[in-house]
Amino acid sequence: HESEINDLYAQIGKLTTQNEWLKKNLVSELNVAQRRLLVDMNGSTLPISTQVRLLELNRSGLYYQPIPHSTEDLHIKQMIDKIYTRYPMYGYRRICWYMNEIEHYVINHKAVLRHMKEMGIQAIYPRQNTSRPEPANKIYPYLLRGLKIDHPDQVWSIDITYIPVKTNWLYLVAIIDWYSRFVLHWQLSDTMEIDFVLDTSRKALNVSSPEIMNSDQGSHFTSPKFTQIFLDAGSKISMDHRGRAYDNIFIERLWRTIKYEDIYPKAYETPKEARIGIHNYIKFYNHERPHSRLKYRTPEEIYRDR
């Protein structure tokens, strides 16, 4: 009997190890949208609560259904996004003025403010609505003032931006290395749930880890779920001052580059097209596009020399 018990314990240990291995590799290889497709909504094999825990998903995201938007609403948001990308210092009143006087599109400032909130752009300052921290979350000091950044993996930055498509819009999160401008990882989502931010962070840390991780004070980035990932990796946390868009200047420039060189000219029709197109563009940006600030070397060349 004792040998049978030992065999059972050994089998349990083996199955536990295999389960952990499968969980780790499944979560690391699939993005949030792909993992959502694995959930059995009938709960016939495992309870849904167990499935979302194993797949590291937010349960509320399973029930999200995109709301159709009118063509006019999408057109307005695309106009706002282009103005905001070109003039990131403009708040909703200046954007309203620009639309009326320069674009000759009649709209009032309350409508502009409403659209900007729906897009995740905060009025007054050119930051995302995510720059409003949760009151209970810790705000870390800004560590980059006066810092000489002279090697890869010294400082990484993360941010979220709005991506227009013909019938809807998406949110793009990316992590960039300040020194080389190399995009370590990125992901698109149709919601502002924190899952895609955490997923992107873990996958970037599979490449390397930064000495300092910089972000704005958004609720995603002040969340302990996010900060703990980098603290566990041995990184220090740095956060921009409120309302200081240029504290995170290199990722702001990345957004401008992606939008002017890819998003706007391509005018993607569907989320699938946007994912494929952005994937191809970021691959080009990292590996083929020479950067003037890097003496016309590519981000990948500089980052590879770390």
Q: Can you give a write-up of this model?
A:
Involved in the transposition of the insertion sequence. InterPro entries: HTH-like_dom, Integrase_cat-core, RNaseH-like_sf, RNaseH_sf, Transpos_IS3, Transposase_IS3/IS150/IS904. This is Integrase catalytic domain-containing protein. One of its GO terms (molecular function) is nucleic acid binding. It holds the Pfam family HTH_21. With 306 residues, the chain is of the alpha/beta class. It has 3 domains: 62 residues, no CATH class; 54 residues; 150 residues, Nucleotidyltransferase, domain 5, CATH 3.30.420. It is 46% helix and 12% strand. The chain has 12 helices and 7 strands. The strands form 2 sheets. A 5-stranded mixed sheet has the order 5-4-3-6-7, sandwiched between helices. Helix 5 packs across helix 6, helix 7 packs parallel to helix 9 and helix 10 packs across helix 11.
